[in-house]
Each structure stands twice: as structure tokens, then as C-alpha cells.
Amino acid sequence: MKKSRRKFIKDSATITGGLILASQSSLASDQVKSAQTTAKDIVICIFQRGAADGLHSVVPHGDSDYFAHRQRTAVNNSIDLDGFFGLNPDLSPLKQIWDEGDLAIIHAVGSPDESRSHFDAQDAMEYADFNKNINRTGWLSKYLTETQNSNDSVFRAVSLNGSVPKSIKGEIEALTVSGLKNFDVVTHENLYVDTRTTLDSMFSNDEFFSDSSNVLFSAIDTLQNINPDDYPVDNNAEYQNNEFAKKLKTISTMIKADLGVEIACIDFGGWDHHNDLVESFKLPAQAFANGLLAFYQDMGERMQNISILCMTEFGRRVADNASNGTDHGHASVMYAIGKQVNGAQVYTDWPGLAENNLNRGDLEVTTDFREIFSELLVKRLKYQGDLSSIIPEFAYQGGIDLFKS
Questions:
Q1: What is the pTM of this model?
Q2: What are the E-state strand segments in 34-91?
Q3: Which residues pair with 20 in a beta bridge?
Q4: Which of 51, 301, 358, 371 sits most deeply, having the most CB atoms within 10 A of its CB?
């Protein structure tokens, strides 16, 4: 089977083991710049892995049954949003984005599949496909494949994690990015030139592979000429010293350096709070909210063409447990951020928390996450093809008016 150039570059970083680290993104060549489009957004997908508690994050303080169910862990001082929902105070930085009209929250959103397995639920969301066959492809990877002629940058899709998430696994995969100085040939400094020469010669007799290796080494060379100090943080934004903030700052630099990034994915783990929800929620929530605010402020008017979508595999049970935590549930929340978001709204068909409205003791899903993905594809990524080729066995209903066209 013929490999795409991008697929080859991704694989070359794997095949050579410790020699090449596919850990950065940078090809600011004329080739990349000319390939960028202005019609579609840069999309940043953030996955809160572990099943973030939507009822603890965005509190339905207007539903009295919430307090009846959460006698140990109820949030009594949420920051009011619309008279019915409020933000957990640990997420208070998000209120600034809300007040600007650039944050929307989708509540009671999730999967029609009722699995409470982290692995199954994450797979369903990342593939946007419930058919458990071994050949499933990530929904974003399908989009990249369907539109590959629109952007030829090898950094079109990047993962800020230690590996490529399943959402962008497929024929066209992302490069993994851990920092702006980590994409290089790794060897002893005295052997650097010889190592590069050897690697290059491995592909020199094949036109396709020679061309591909040239692109790879061009990316490395270009990166080495990029100084992050040339792209300072703007608008008095302040990134904290944690991994999430560092990843967002890396994306910020890549965007400012005009590298042709179209899709970026970040994993943020640590949301599986079976015990001591109130205390264990604080640090990840504060890092999450502060990081998003810093990035939003840093990007400034660039947010006109950036859409952030935050998701989690499922929510938590409505009633807290004896360990002052919450167990695996069903519906949760998603967040959408950007100047092309119809913000300052909580989108929901609220099912209510009375016992007869629950799904096996859980908040019922009233918005299918695939409707949100579809609307993002159509309105912000300007996808004009057959949506069923990306999100199978789903009939898009036109969205919930979350994004501007």
C-alpha cells in the first residue's frame, strides 16, 4: 500500500527508535505558508481523560434535586452563569471568557452508548464510531484524509502528548510534540553529522523516500532556527508552570510562527475522582481553567480563527458515594471557546435530576457528542463532503447553533 509523505515522516520517527524524536512541529517554509487556508479555523481538541464530573464543574444550582443527591460534595458557592447553572469556583478563570461572550458550555452531553468503561467510552468518542472493529480510524484523521489537498504542511496535525491520540490515528497521523527543541536527530554531538548523513543515505536511491527525508530534515533545520523568544506571550497573559500550560504555550508559539497547524490535540488526565471529589478536583480544575484563560488572552484577536473544544468520555453518577467522591456515570459537559462561538450560553435540553429522570442513577444524555463534532466540522472546519464518511451511522441535524458559520 502506498504511503503518504506525511505518513512516512510519522513512521520514520517510529522506525528509527531513539534516533529521531517526533516531538516537535516546525516547518515555516514557503511550502507550508502557501498551503495554509484562511477559510477554516485552527481547532484545538482537549480531552479531559478520566471522566470529569460535569455536575461538579457546571453546577445546576437551580435544580433542587442536585443538592439532595450531593449531600457530601455539593457546590454551594458556584459562580452564577444564567440563573440555573453556575461554575465551580475552581474554574473561575473561565468566567472571564464567558463574560467576553466567547465561552459556551454544553451540558447533559455525551454518548448514546451506555458503557461506563473508560476505554470503551474514550474509543467511541475518539473514533466517533461505535463499531468495535480493528480498522477504526479517528474522526479527525478521517477529516484530514478527506481534505489532505487543502494543507500540505507536515505539521498540519500535532499531538501535544507523549503519543498520538486515537482521534488523529489513521492514514494521516499527527506528529507528537513535546517542546520546541525536541524534534531532532538524537545522538552524541560528535556523531551528529555522520548520523544525519547515514539516515539521509538510507533513502537516497528512492525518489519518494528521498523527497520525504528532505522534508523531515527541513523540518528539523527550520525548527532549530526558531527561537521561542521571538514569539513572546501577548496581552499580559500568564501561563502557569504546569504541563497543561506548557502545552498550550507551545501551541501558541506554533500558531504565531505560522507553521500551518490546523488540528492540535491535548490530553489532560486526572479526572477520575472516586474519592474526596472536592479536594481532588481543585488542582486539575484550576490548572485547566487558568491554562485556557492564558491561551485565550495570549491569542487575542487570533481567536477569530481558533476554536477550542474540550470533552470528556463520560460524567459521574448523580449521587456522591461514601468516599466523598463520585463513580462512573453517563452525561457530562463540553466547553467551546473562540470568537466564532455563540458564547455566554449553556446549551442543554436539561433532563432534570429527579429519580424518575435519571438513567440508571445518572444524568441522562440529551445532546449526542457527534452533533457537536459534526457542527464543528461543517461550520468551523468548513467540511463540505459526506459527513457519514467521518462520523458513520449518524444523521447530522444541523447542530445546536453552537458555532457561527
A1: 0.87
A2: 42-48, 58-59, 79-80, 86-87
A3: 185
A4: 51
